[in-house]
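Deliverable D2.4 — example input (structure tokens):
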């Protein structure tokens, strides 16, 4: 027996709620992974530039403070994103609207709010990923340059602490970086508004059912998909730059290891 229009609409709402929750959770996971990688690359840069002769990285108070600030910011973002799904359950809201004999326009508006919010959040995540990836590659390049300098101009002893080296750390570096991420995400708002204006308004006929409203918003999903592909091109380009500096770093370390190997072992066949 075919499901009734109400059952079909409620089933679609449940699937959308579950799918979007899984998608946005995966987006948060990737942001956390990128932040962790960036933190390690920053730590590697600091180690190579200031303590190249130490066998283990030196975690200063600044780096500990940065870890706490980044973790707190990420947890706040995660709480805000996940809370939306439980404070605004799509299935329950749709069921209440249908039982209250809401107008077709109200049903369409209910779907539109959900679709626009998810699209903007997802596009903001994409923007943040690209910004983080670019920052990782930039800092990785600085690690390579510091490593090259350390190997070509080896230090005779441990460098003095950063506070005594004449280099003044920027106390607002972490805050500035988080503001940069927020600014990058906010750049998505004009894009999202343009995408919404470019969508054909939901007709009276399409607004008669939640399922028809979902079909009418295919243009929005296609726009988000296009933005993801454009960001993917930028991402791949950045990854190729990262691969180039990884290859250069490998050759640099390999050359230095060969140069400082005992003369008796150079050219010695493997055991």
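Example output (designed residues):
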């Amino acid at each position: 027996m075919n499901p009734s229009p109400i059952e079909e609409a409620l089933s679609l709402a449940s699937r959308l709620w579950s799918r979007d929750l899984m998608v946005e959770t995966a987006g948060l996971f990737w942001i956390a992974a990128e932040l962790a990688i960036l933190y390690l690359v920053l730590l590697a840069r600091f180690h190579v530039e200031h303590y190249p002769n130490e066998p283990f990285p030196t975690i200063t108070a600044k780096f500990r403070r940065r870890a706490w600030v980044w973790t707190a910011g990420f947890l706040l973002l995660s709480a805000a994103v996940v809370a939306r799904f439980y404070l605004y359950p799509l299935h329950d809201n749709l069921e209440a609207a249908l039982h209250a004999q809401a107008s077709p326009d109200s049903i369409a508006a209910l779907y539109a709010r959900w679709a626009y919010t998810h699209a903007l959040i997802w596009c903001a995540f994409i923007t943040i990923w690209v910004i983080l990836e670019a920052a990782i590659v930039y800092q990785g390049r600085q690690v390579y340059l510091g490593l090259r300098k350390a190997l070509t101009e080896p230090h005779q002893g441990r460098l003095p602490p950063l506070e005594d080296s004449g280099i003044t750390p920027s106390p607002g570096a972490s805050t500035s970086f988080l503001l940069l991420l927020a600014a990058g995400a906010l750049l998505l708002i004009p894009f999202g508004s343009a995408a919404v204006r470019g969508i054909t308004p939901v007709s009276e006929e399409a607004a008669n059912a939640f399922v028809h409203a979902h079909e009418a918003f295919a243009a929005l999903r296609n726009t988000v998909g296009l933005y993801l592909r454009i960001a993917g091109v930028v991402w791949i380009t950045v990854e190729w730059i990262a691969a180039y500096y990884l290859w250069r770093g490998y050759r640099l370390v390999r050359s230095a290891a060969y140069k400082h190997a005992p003369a008796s072992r150079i050219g010695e066949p493997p055991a």
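The mean pLDDT is 74.
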